[in-house]
UniProtKB/TrEMBL annotation:
Gene Ontology molecular function: any one: ATP binding
UniProt-recorded name of the protein: histidine kinase
Principal EC category: transferase
Residue intervals of the Histidine kinase domain: 346-547
PROSITE patterns: HIS_KIN
Transmembrane segments annotated in the record for this chain: 61-80, 92-109, 136-160, 172-190, 202-221
Length: 549
């Protein structure tokens, strides 16, 4: 009757688990309970059998369920705890090799002595019981079963201390369901139970079934599961926007996400297990001081800037077991700060200077009729107007940078600007050598090219002013060179563009160059200025090719 109750409890649990499919762990739990019921049913038939042959038959058949139980238990525990990467078809086949061999040996035991070396019936108190002497494979499957049971218990033991009450209840119920038959079987193998040679482990499954039913009903086994926890943490680490490098106490890289490998320009296989100071000496030096304040890391060969922060990893005993170095991309922030500094300089210095000159000359004109002073007023008013136009152009660039932009044909852009400059500055000789037909670039280069060509013609004070424009394809980019024979660019202006800062005693005259640099940067290109007093200026734009018409 106890065995019948065991089967009833097992079937009930299997049906409840079946209803939860395809939730993680549901299928393996169904197989586990099916294996348990199979073992119990075969034990019922074995007890009621009379002849040696029939008793041996039911023992041999029972190995199908016995072999299924440890594999199903391990798969359930792994899926339930979120270790699905170890439940793929390849791993299932690996786990099932020994149990499959065992089931085969059980069904063919009459032809060998691997599972049992002998089988006899002993009469005790008028009851015929089967006694079998274990063979070598019996101990192999016994050890293997306990090994899988132990491996399945490990992830559940981690959840016993979970801060979620439901998970604690679930894991404890499942562990009780494991320990009851486990302890019973150990006692039987040690011959410490008075069961007349009958393995009472299936009877212990009655306690397991009750425990599993409690986990399914009282603790909502498949209603609230810890399965996503491990995957979420792993996913957050891998997909976080910041680069992250995990180090052990000796400074070796033990984990690294994709963002960090991109930043350090190192494949994961070459970084893992290596000292950080070997993979990135600069980052290693910064990491030691990152806790004292903001530290900026600039990887060699890139224009990116990263804020480096370090946090220590500690265990439950507050011992330091490693550290995490986080790399947050602050390139845009620093560029915006640079742009604000330039704009601040424009309004603080240039416009204020022009306004002061205008006010001073206005007072003079109030009492004197001076043509020279009037021209001075006009000049500075036009400079303010020019600055206003440039500010408007900068605002337009920033606004376009936040929007989706359509590619424009490069040759069409340049032909239009060349025609406009020739009409506005007829004294300037403008030469244009167009590049390959059909190249399309970001529409921001329309504003950038207009600004650079305009500056080359407007500020060219050479007796025979010339501007030469050439286009050359370079792989997936196109090089646009604007060369003039003017006086060159003031070094303060170049320093402002290259460094993004200015000194209190040195100021740029405007931000036409900054406009070109910002627009190029937003469009994903680069700009290079070469300027001398004797040879003039060469501005080289590198623009990504978006399409070929």
């Amino acid at each position: 009757m106890v065995l019948v109750a065991t089967v009833g409890v097992g079937v009930t649990g299997a049906l409840l688990a079946w209803r939860e499919r395809p939730k993680p762990g549901a299928d393996p739990l169904v197989l586990f309970l099916v294996g348990q019921c199979w073992w119990s049913v075969t034990l019922i038939f074995r007890i009621n059998a009379v002849s040696l042959q029939s008793k041996v038959f039911w023992v041999d058949v029972s190995w199908i369920g016995v072999a299924l139980i440890p594999v199903a238990w391990l798969l359930f525990a792994l899926e339930y705890a979120g270790y699905q990467e170890y439940t793929t078809r390849r791993y299932i086949l690996l786990y099932s090799i020994v149990p499959a061999i065992t089931a085969f040996f059980g069904l063919t035991s009459q032809h060998h002595q691997l599972l049992y070396t002998s089988s006899v019936i002993i009469q005790e108190n008028g009851v015929a019981t089967l006694t079998r002497t274990p063979g070598i494979w019996f101990w192999v499957i016994a050890i293997y079963t306990y090994l899988l049971g132990f491996l399945g218990a490990l992830p559940l033991l981690q959840l016993v201390t979970s801060r979620v009450n439901t998970f604690r209840g679930q894991s404890l119920s499942l562990l009780v369901g494991l320990l009851a038959p486990w302890a019973t079987n150990v006692l039987f193998l040690l011959d410490l139970l008075p069961t007349a040679g009958v393995d009472p482990t299936p009877i212990a499954f009655a306690f397991s079934g009750v425990a599993y039913l409690g986990a399914l009903t009282r603790f909502q086994l498949f209603g609230a599961t810890p399965t996503p926890i491990r995957h979420a943490r792993d996913s957050l680490f891998k997909r976080m926007q910041q680069g992250a490098v995990v180090l052990d106490t000796h400074g070796h890289i033990v984990d690294i996400n994709d963002q960090a490998t991109t930043i350090l320009q190192t494949p994961p296989d070459e970084a893992l297990g290596q000292p950080l100071k070997q993979v990135s000496p600069d980052l290693s030096a910064l990491g030691r001081t990152a806790r004292t304040g903001q530290t900026i890391f600039n990887p060699s060969g890139t224009s990116k800037s990263y804020d480096v922060s370090e946090s220590l990893l500690t265990d439950i005993h507050d011992r330091t077991i490693g550290q995490v170095i986080t790399l947050h991309d602050v390139s845009d922030l620093l560029r915006d700060q640079q742009r604000l500094e330039v704009l601040h300089r424009i309004f603080r210095h240039n416009i204020r200077t022009n306004v002061q000159v205008i006010l001073g000359n206005t007072e003079y004109l109030a009492t004197h009729n001076s043509t020279a002073k009037a021209e001075t007023l006009k000049k500075h008013a036009l400079e303010i107007q020019e600055l206003s136009d440039q500010v408007r152009a900068v605002i337009d660039i920033f606004e376009q940078g936040r929007e989706d932009r359509e590619p424009l044909n490069l040759n069409s852009i340049l032909r239009e600007h060349v025609a406009s400059i020739r009409a506005e500055y007829p004294e300037v000789t403008v030469e244009y050598t167009h590049g390959p037909d059909g190249i399309a670039v970001d529409s921001l280069f329309n504003v950038v090219c207009s600004n650079i060509i305009q500056n080359a013609a407007q500020h060219n004070t050479s007796p025979n002013p010339r501007v030469a424009i050439t286009v050359e394809q370079d792989g997936e980019s196109v090089l646009i060179r604007v060369r003039d024979n003017g006086p060159g660019i003031d070094q303060n202006e170049l320093a402002l563009i290259e460094q993004g800062t200015e000194t209190p005693l040195e100021h740029g005259s405007g931000f036409g160059l900054a406009l070109a640099a910002w627009g190029t940067d937003i469009a994903g290109g680069t700009v290079d200025f070469e300027s001398t007093d004797s040879t003039g200026t060469v501005v080289t734009l590198r623009a990504p090719i978006l399409s070929h018409d």
